[in-house]
Amino acid sequence: MKSARSPVAVWRGRDLFDGRVAESTTVILRTRGCRWNRCVMCGYAQEGVDASAEDIIAQFRSILDKVEGAELVKIYTSGSFLDPAEVPEAARLEILRSLRDMDVRRLVIESRPEYIDRLALEQILSFLDAEIGIGLESSSDLVRTYLINKGFTFFDFTGASDMIHSLGGRVKTYLLLKPPGLSEMEAIADAMRSARDAEPYSDIISLNLCNVQRNTPLERMWQRGGYRPPWLWSAVEVLREASLKIPVICDPVGAGARRGPHNCGTCDGYVAAAIRSFSLSQSRADLNVDCSCRSVWRKVLELEDLSFGVPLV
Ligand SMILES: [Zn+2]
């Protein structure tokens, strides 16, 4: 039974923090979930309950021991932290006060652009340094609108980013590697182009490798053989070749699983580890890994555009 008084998840980790590695805590608060809830790959809303401000404050208090000593705290909601219908202002204020009192250096939250408003940002930044994550997914309005059903434009993203920067906040831009409907090669090209387009509006880019979540339109497509999650080699390619002036990080969630980004099964573990190392070091040398399946992946890139959208391997 999902309780409105306990968060979805909480864990300690290490993250890139202004060019060095710092202790971090990630909390996923249980809220009513994303108000949009129409993106083809997203099943997060199923984690939702009707949580009140008091419930959310109780969730946050229950994990305070895990925040102790962390410089960076990421508070996610499977939706938008800045949507007041999801996280009521009373809960937001209480969380901000606690984080400031615990000497947390930076708060990372996520929000759709439509909830990013000046007053909310000014309030947060009066307590501590903040980074706002925005799920741009792709810089192409066609890909974002028709393949993902995201419901906002690149212009909405740049407007939100400009506002955040003008108030002294930071922007973390999420890109989705391999939305459905793109071949492996097209997906790499879309991610590279998106990284370049988003760079002037971002302080850091997080490349998210598409997973097949339960009870989503993407899952139905995958069950019919119409979708294959991205190869880890494709992520390596984007991270290696993007050549940006800002950091590009990637946490290959679900790597090696059939529903997650995967290679041949033998190399998934160490290729995912290489991607995680690169995310902390930003050193391309960390991506020098190989496997015999790399040549299969190269063939897929060559041939898939001839298979009318059907994944080959
Ligand atoms: Zn392999």
TrEMBL record:
Q: Name one GO cellular component term.
A: cytoplasm
One GO biological process from the UniProt record? tRNA wobble base 5-methoxycarbonylmethyl-2-thiouridinylation
* Molecular-function annotations in GO: 4 iron, 4 sulfur cluster binding; catalytic activity; metal ion binding
Keyword rRNA processing applies: no
Cofactor entry: [4Fe-4S] cluster
Is DNA-binding one of the keywords UniProt gives this record? Answer: no
User: Sorted alphabetically, which InterPro entries does this protein's record hold?
Assistant: ELP3 (IPR039661), Elp3/MiaA/NifB-like_rSAM (IPR006638), RaSEA (IPR005909), rSAM (IPR007197), rSAM_sf (IPR058240)
Q: Which parts of the sequence belong to the Elp3/MiaA/NifB-like radical SAM core domain? A: 24-241
Kindly state which keywords UniProt assigns to this record, in alphabetical order: 4Fe-4S, Iron, Iron-sulfur, Metal-binding, S-adenosyl-L-methionine
PANTHER family the UniProt entry points to: ELONGATOR COMPLEX PROTEIN 3, HISTONE ACETYLTRANSFERASE-RELATED
Recorded hits in NCBIfam families, A to Z, give:
archaeosine biosynthesis radical SAM protein RaSEA (TIGR01210)
According to UniProt, the name of this protein is: Radical SAM domain protein
Supply the source organism's classification: Archaea, Methanobacteriati, Methanobacteriota, Stenosarchaea group, Methanomicrobia
